[in-house]
Amino acid sequence: MPIIQIDGQEHEVDTGQNILQACLSLGLDLPYFCWHPSMGSVGACRQCAVVQYQHAEDEHGRIVMACMTPVTEGALFSLTGDKAQRFREGIVEALMLNHPHDCPVCAEGGECHLQDMTVMVGHRDRKYRGKKNTHHNQYLGPLIHHEMNRCITCYRCTRYYNDYAGGTDLAAMAAHDHIYFGRHEEGVLESEFAGNLVEVCPTGVFTDKPLVHEYTRKWDLQSAPSICTSCAVGCNTSPGERYGKLKRIHNRFNADVNGYFLCDRGRFGANFVNSVNNLNYPGSRTEDGRFNALDQQQALLKMAEACDTNNIAGIGSPRASVEANYLLRTLVGADNFAPGFSDVEQPLVELALTIQQSSSAMIADIKNIESADAILILGEDVTNTAPRIALALRQSVRNKAYELAADLGLESWQDSAIRTLAQNQRSPLFIATVGDSRLDDVAEERFNLAPDDIARLGFAVAANIAGEANLGSDDELQQKAKNIAKALKNAKRPLIISGTSCGNSALMESAAQVTQALCNADKQPLPLLSMIVAEANSLGQAMLISDNAVSLSDLTARACAGALETLVVLENDLYRRGKEKDINELLENITNVIVIDGLDNRTLSASSLALPAANFAESEGTLVSMEGRAQRHYPVYLPNAQRRASWHWLLACLKQMGRDEVTEIECFDDITQACATQNSSLSGITTAAPNHQFRNIGVKIPRQTHRYSGRTAMRADISVHEPKQPVDKETPLAFSMEGLNRSQPGSLLPFVWAPGWNSNQSLHKFQSEVGGQLKLKGGTAGTRLLQATDNSNNIALFESPAAFKALKGQWQMVPRHKIYGSDELSVHSPAIAKLVRPAFVEINASDAKKLGVNDGDGVDLNDNKGDKLTTLEVSINDSIATGCVGYSVGFIATENLLAGESLVLSKAENWSPSESQQAVSSGVSDV
Amino acid sequence: MSELGTMVFGLVLILAAVGGAALVTWFERRLLGIWQDRYGPNRLGPFGVLQVAADMIKLLTKHDWVPPFSDKMVFIFAPTAIVVAMLLGFTVVPFGPDLYVIDLNIGLLFFLSMTSLAVYSVLLAGLASNNKYALLGGLRSAAQMVSYEVFMGLSLMGVVMLSGSFSLLDIVEAQRDQWFCIPQFLGLYVFLIAGVAESHRLPFDLPEAEHELTAGFHTEYGGMKFAMFMLGEYLGLILISCMIVTLFFGGWLGPWLPPLLWFCIKVFIVICFFILLRAAIPRPRYDQLMSLGWKYMLPLALFNLVVTAVIALAMQGQG
Amino acid sequence: MFKSLTSQLQTMWTILQHTFTKAETVQYPEEMPYLAPRYRGRIVLTNDPDGDERCVACNLCAVACPVDCIALQQGVRDDGRWYPQFFRINFSRCIMCGMCEEACPTNAIQLTPDFEMCEYDRQSMVYEKEHLQIKGTGKYHDYNFYRVAGLAIAGKDKGEAQNESKPIDIKDLLQ
User: Fold this and answer.
1) What H or E segment, with its residue span, contains residue A814?
2) With touching defined as 3+ CB pairs under 8 A, do chains A and B touch?
3) Are B281 and C14 within 8 A, CB to CB?
4) Which member of C105, C123, C150 has the closest CB to residue A100?
5) Is C155 a residue whose pLDDT tops 80?
6) Residue B42 resides in a domain
């Protein structure tokens, strides 16, 4: 490793870095704007100037940009040299010429990189006497607030939005000092990753719009390490709370998972925790059908009484924590515990787990995905089912460019040079989905087929790789498969992505087959496999249950037979999991329906006893992400009103009943421990994060910043006598500003701050440069429960399904996921709700012609008995395969539809779009 | 005096001593105020003299708390000891030619023994409180008393030699021609310092030392028990003043005015002097206190004793 | 020893001399001390010269407060101005240090010479915005933050703040 000299001090630095990276890794403060660890260097802002000397006798040196200067053995630099310092100060002075005088009313103030850098270079007095340039702002949608005057033209926004995230509707416009960053006209930013502009922009041009309207400064936010619950990727987040309300979600760096970026559903969708529809008190149904509020103890006694029977069943939830599900399973017994998937989804999730557990391929995390150089997606619309993966895929197709750069000896951070070099050359990405997808623009080829046909394509690719070229007579399919197989075989690190979202098991099996074929070719490093599941803990739920676990329909059958007296539903809206009449049948045949949930929904309204569950920001829990990574989220603030974590209710109930299983369990960690002991596949969850006894150099980790204000006035309106700070017995975090937030494990990092670095750029103070990857000093968060197994032939060989043929007069329902709308909870966030379009069915033009419908018409969906299920708006989309109908999944209007079923369609007469089209469940109970 | 007269006088003496001690607390605060350019308690009653009553009411009505971790018996006993010992000391003080409770022929020794008993109060309070500050205060007190008692007694031997008696009446009578403060100025100096230390008043209040030890030996005390300590301290102050007057300033002797008035005036001046000490002199460090006692005061007292003895012998030879 | 003895005697003499000097104490309720106009007492929120509230809820006073006795929540008014939805000072904690006034970028929060705020009930020492807000401009008569800052509000568009030129038309090639 080269040794360089900085201000007379010798430092050993990593090869392949630039001087800026090296300085930051060494803990030296060097100002910068345009450089970003994920986006490389372009040398645009001229802020990171240092003096480089030719040799030891060179007294003058010359100014170079640190971010554009590679480290070389024996190079001599000075950061503190007078020349460099004056230069940097001059740059900031120039950048500030047009900066408006509005820090007090700027949502970036207090965590502004520009503020930090201005203080760091020492610029204070404005000498310029001319007038400031000004700009009009643009409306950029409900998520992002635009304030163009604050811009310092570092170009980070367009480099992120266009180059990194593949957006097309944000650009630098005009020229010289008139430059303007915005859209060609006002409108909602199209990219699903636009929210990252808030964190990428070093000043206040792009800010968090929901936050701006009820703003709290960074120093006043109480934060805790958390995990995003809007999909199965398991991005690490840092939610901030003030006055009992969740104010915002910021990214929490995790080198293996989300890195520096989140998707907009994750960032803005968590506001559902502030919803007015929150259930705050326990309630029981009286004889007249209304709910009476109870206190906690009464509710607990009622629950324990109802649970004291053998005719009991429990329905868990893939969005609840492993611990809560485990306790419910303990309460009702393993044979009476349904995991809470729909009947279609349950076998698929189990299959996803089996495939990943037995596969000899590497189960890909996002860091791996970004290293893939040939990708085959089978059936998943990744942008809408696991959005953060889509952003990673946009980086993996650039591996071709890095390859070309490496041939020329260019360092990977030479961003502009590499983009110019590669132009449109990309690593191959093949997408086989039921309709178009947002990644089509970077795909080498895309195939829009019916799910069974996608599976056949997969099997054909697998056969091709394995060398069994003749499979059936479909020449066209064979030719496509041959191309894909060739690309995958030639790649250094091929990646196969599939998942449960199509509701088709053959498709997933084909993905397993392709991966296995690649593994059999003895590739090193191992080929990558990624199975996308739907919810934050879907995979954990599959790990918790045994094979042949009871399903919802099993329970319905039992209920109808009168064999069920009590049903406990944990954080699950059953109406999203099956047809309305089936769920009604289930719930109506059971006397005691106990529902533990946080946000009001139809199941809660149908319960006889409702218990308010704390949401992810109020409780601790372990979630297993789609790649099998167990990660823990911690309460950001104490639950409001009488809400309690689900595990808390269940544990209290078990204790009340005096059950033996819980005599040893005193705290949350004990539940995790018990669960890990009893389930071998979950044995790793105890190491997902340190237990509650962990102390950071002897002290707890503070949730509040050291500048947290208003402590003696916040609740003075209630009482002037300040209560003791709440004690957190369950976690190593403290509900106060006392403790040490430094160098702890990444799973316990509530927020980032370092002296002189108030913005999120202070993250580099928590990172160490290890093996060329910026990792957190305390290690990354989470434990992987799935490891690549080295037994190549133990995976079952699957059969290819028959080609899809539409039944006469019927259409196959294929799910179309929507990033805004398909998720149960995020649509309750007001900002996201504004982006949700009405429920729809998509159909290609020729099929539409057969039906006699046009864009915007209504269409009735009937089952083959002729019962009408729902009526939806038609949207013509030619990418949908003939005989298939795409429908928006997860919307209240489409809850009655199942993936893969065949339905009869007919044009709806006298239909108007307003009818029952809202995405948000309107079920309201009287509690 | 008749026996009844003695009893009545004893009762009056107790009341006067206790009342005087209470008044001195107010007087001290006012005087300190004057010397520190402020007012002191001046709100309640004429010149604020009713402040004493207010303080008393406050102390009497305070929660009479015994810490649960303390040695309870000893804790309660400790403050009474100092008051009793100090009051007993007053019995031998001659306030006038016929105004005394008892004229012991070992009056001086009785006084010394009573002031020595007071140390138990402080020591036990420190020990019984079961508190580290209190314990440190008690320890300091013990060491301080032991050190200063030695030359306190020695410094008075000159007086005894010159008067030829331990009886305080005799000692006063011996001063008709000349107050002992002239021939025994060294003895006076040593006794003055030892007296301040014995009553552990500023600047020698190391057992309390609120800046280092919270409140030293009486950290855990409050209410009436705390008041007893305060009472004991001020009784000690008056007692020492009485002794100084008796031993060195001719007791009740003086022209024109009645003897009791002379005595009171003299005592008042000495008390003022003690308060001036408090107002002016900072508290020494603990090691300074010890070195002052053993290295300077003890030799000085011995020197005084020897010189007095030589002169007394010489005068006896002449006489 | 001799030296220290004389020094102590000197001290006692000096102290004794103070018997004849006048007391410094001011007999407060009967005799009012002089309070300078910038004396630091009870805190108020002021209006700008145009009669609208000055506070923009930037939170700087709260963070500057050494006893953390200021709490507020920002909101945005329809005209684009930031304002405090609530603004609370717990005067039972306030030490009248004036750090909030120094931190305030809009001259909204100001300390007045009124310090007589005794209450029998501590709860009465908690002042909400309606107790703090006054109608006048306080010590600073002319300052209006929005006339200086670049944020556009109703009645003051982009380019109309101090030292600003008219907004750029980025679609005009001639500029």
Assistant:
1) strand A811-816
2) no
3) no
4) C150
5) yes
6) no
Residue in A809, A814, A804 with CA at minimum distance from that of residue A880: A814
Cβ contact A352:A232 at 8 Å: no
Task: Using an 8 Å CB-CB cutoff, list chain C residues near A219.
Answer: 63
Report the alpha-carbon distance of residue C164 to residue C145 in Å, rounded: 14
C-alpha dist (Å) from residue A89 to A46, A86, A92, A119: 11, 5, 5, 10
Q: Report residue A248: phi and psi, to 5°.
A: -165, 165
Q: Letter for the amino acid at A610?
A: A
Segment A18-73, tens digit of pLDDT? 999 999 988 899 999 999 989 999 999 999 999 999 988 888 899 999 999 999 99
On whether residue B106 sits in a domain, the answer given is yes
* Residue extents of the structural domains in chain C: 33-148
Domains detected in chain A: 3-95 (3.10.20.740), 103-274 (no CATH), 346-535 (3.40.228.10), 811-907 (2.40.40.20)
A272 touches A825 (CB < 8 A): yes
B44 falls within a domain: no
Could you say which DSSP state residue A763 is in?
Answer: G
How far, in Å, CA of A695 to CA of A740, rounded? Answer: 9
**Residue located via tokens 């002239």:** B182
Instruction: Please name every residue paired with A547 in a beta bridge, in sequence order, or none if there are none.
Output: none
Report whether A180 contacts A149 (CB < 8 A).
no
- Measured between alpha carbons, how far is A532 from A893 in angstroms, rounded to an integer? 24
Domain that holds residue B120: 65-318
CB contact under 8 A, A709 and C70: yes
Residue A625: the pLDDT is 94
Written in H, E and C, the secondary structure of C81-93 is: CEEEEEEEEECCC
Question: What is the residue type of A419?
Answer: R
Distance from the Cα of A716 to chain C's closest Cα (Å) equals 7
A141: tokens are: 């949608």
Q: Is the peptide bond before B203 cis (omega within 30 degrees of 0)?
A: yes
| Average pLDDT of the segment spanning C142-152 | 91
* C23/B279 CB distance under 8 A: no
Count of all residues that appear for chain B in the document? 319
Q: Is A490 helix (H, G, I), strand (E, B) or coil?
A: helix
Q: Look at residue A534 in the predicted model and tell me its pLDDT.
A: 92
State the ipTM, two decimals.
Answer: 0.88
HEC states along A887-920? EECCCHHHCCCCCCCEEEEEECCCCCCCCCCCCC
Token pair listed for B161: 């030699």
What is the H or E stretch that residue B160 is in?
A: helix B132-163
**In a 10 Å sphere around its CB, with 0-12 CB exposed, 13-18 middle and 19+ buried, how is residue A502 labelled?**
buried
DSSP string, A302-353: HHHHHHSSSSEEEE--TTS-HHHHHHHHHHH-GGGEE----TTHHHHHHHHH
Could you please state the CATH topology (level 3) that the domain comprising C33-148 is classified under: Alpha-Beta Plaits (3.30.70)
The total number of structural domains that make up chain B: 1
**Most distant pair of Cα atoms in chain A: their distance:** 94
Domain presence at residue B10: no
Q: Tell whether omega for the bond before B282 is within 30 degrees of 0, i.e. cis.
A: no
Computed from CA positions of residues A810, A811, A812, A817, in that sequence, does the dihedral angle turn out positive or negative?
negative
- Quickly list H helices, A343-473: 345-358, 366-371, 382-385, 387-396, 399-408, 415-422, 451-466
Q: Give the amino acid at A476.
A: E
All partners of chain B with 3 or more CB pairs under 8 angstroms = C
Tens of pLDDT, residue by residue over C7-27, are 888 888 988 888 888 888 888
Task: Please answer yes or no on whether C71 and A173 come within 8 Å at the CB atom.
Answer: no
Tell me which residues of chain C, numbers 120 to 139, contact chain A at a CB-CB cutoff of 8 Å.
122-123, 125-126, 128
